[in-house]
Design brief:
This protein has 192 residues and is α+β, with helices and mostly antiparallel strands. Helix content is 15%, strand content 27%. It contains four helices and ten strands; from the N terminus they run H-H-H-E-E-E-E-E-E-E-E-E-H-E. The longest helix is centred in the middle third of the chain and has 10 residues, at 65-74. The mean pLDDT is 90.
Length: 192
């Protein structure tokens, strides 16, 4: 499955969409395949001689599913949020910030039968159900989901998630506009 998360509405609103044609028919390959993963792909380790020159963008171009899933599954109940279960953020390995300057991405695990507490925040989100079956309650409306389903969470909407299986984990991938809200000092979160 391919799911694009784009910040085009924000870029369009700021009138910052443009193209820049490349001078050749094809871009030359100047680095070996998977160089970004080799340089930036091991959590907590960076080459001391090299840092990304673009401070806002991640030097890592590929966040491997197998690595993220393994780490998510290794988290114990003590590392869980009452509002999101086990939640990992894909981060920029150079500065620890979000993977993109305008969007944050997450991988989330709900244990069998787990139901999170309701909360709301001033960031919108898009979720992809990767594994398992569950439901999300958004402002008192119930949305059932299964693998491959995509649903959106409006900003400041009360929500909670539930894994309806008694034996299997549920995995959600999501991306949010929280980095923009934080940069503007507009991010708020409230327990319900």
């Amino acid at each position: 499955m391919w799911l694009d998360g784009l910040d085009i509405p924000l870029a369009s609103l700021l009138e910052n969409i443009f193209t820049q044609p490349f001078s050749q028919e094809a871009q030359p390959v100047t680095k070996p395949l998977n160089t970004s993963a080799a340089v930036y792909g091991k959590g907590g380790l960076l080459p001391s001689w090299q840092r990304s020159s673009d401070k806002g963008r991640s030097g890592l171009l590929k966040y491997a599913w197998t690595d993220a899933y393994e780490m998510l599954m290794s988290l114990g109940k003590d590392e869980e949020s009452p509002f999101d279960g086990s939640l990992l953020e894909y981060v920029n390995p150079v500065n620890g910030g979000p993977s993109l300057p305008t969007m944050a991405s997450f991988l989330q695990r709900l244990r069998p039968g787990q139901k999170t507490q309701a909360h709301r925040h001033s960031a919108s989100a898009v979720y992809l159900a990767v594994q398992g079956h569950g439901r999300t309650v958004i402002d008192d409306r119930v949305y059932d989901w299964a693998p491959g389903d995509v649903f959106a969470l409006p900003l400041w909407a009360a929500h909670c998630h539930e894994n309806v299986s008694a034996s299997q984990d549920a995995i959600l991938f999501s991306f949010t506009d929280a980095p923009v809200m934080r940069a503007l000092d507009w991010y708020r979160e409230q327990e319900l």
